[in-house]
Amino acid sequence: MDGKSAMKRVGAGVIGLAASAAVLVGCSDDKSGPSPSPSESSQSSAAAAPQASTGGKTEVKVDGADLAGLDLNSVTCVKQGGKINVASGAIGGQQGLGIVMTDEATPVVESLGMVVDGNALAVANAMGAKSGSAEVKVDGDTYTITGEAVGADMSNPMAGMITKPFTVTVSCS
């Protein structure tokens, strides 16, 4: 293995670990308290059941162009535990999308990860660490997330970080 190949693998590993950590932090729940009694638990579990939707109107653009290779029909949106999770499948395993945001009147993106042309790009906003940027606008059940995702160019990891503007529009009922 030559030096360039090893450096590419190290760079990919670091970005992968950072994206995984951001998703885990975004999916965690820091609320603690006494365990509910069995009768309270059955009542609250019905109220806290996740709301999921699939196959709604979804659009993903990076640098103003559709993100090719993303299976828009596989996009799933789940509301649970005060979070909204959006995820997709890929066509041929090349592209992907994952978003965790708060479920409130003005949602905040906690983490966003996408694969664009083989490069892992991310937005993270957790525990005081912030990379990239994202803003959410809500119109009924439609969420429009715009911003800039950052990552490394895997074809030339020594060139430094790359930044790509993106827009994600997803229906989540």
Automatic annotation (TrEMBL):
One of its GO terms (cellular component) is membrane. Keywords: Cell membrane, Lipoprotein, Membrane, Palmitate, Signal. InterPro entries: LpqH. Pfam families: Myco_19_kDa. It comes from the Bacteria. Coiled coil: none annotated. Residues 27-59 are annotated as: Disordered. This is Mycobacterium 19 kDa lipoprotein antigen family protein. The keyword Signal applies. Residues 38-53 have a biased composition (Low complexity). It comes from Mycolicibacterium vanbaalenii (strain DSM 7251 / JCM 13017 / BCRC 16820 / KCTC 9966 / NRRL B-24157 / PYR-1). PROSITE patterns: PROKAR_LIPOPROTEIN (PS51257).
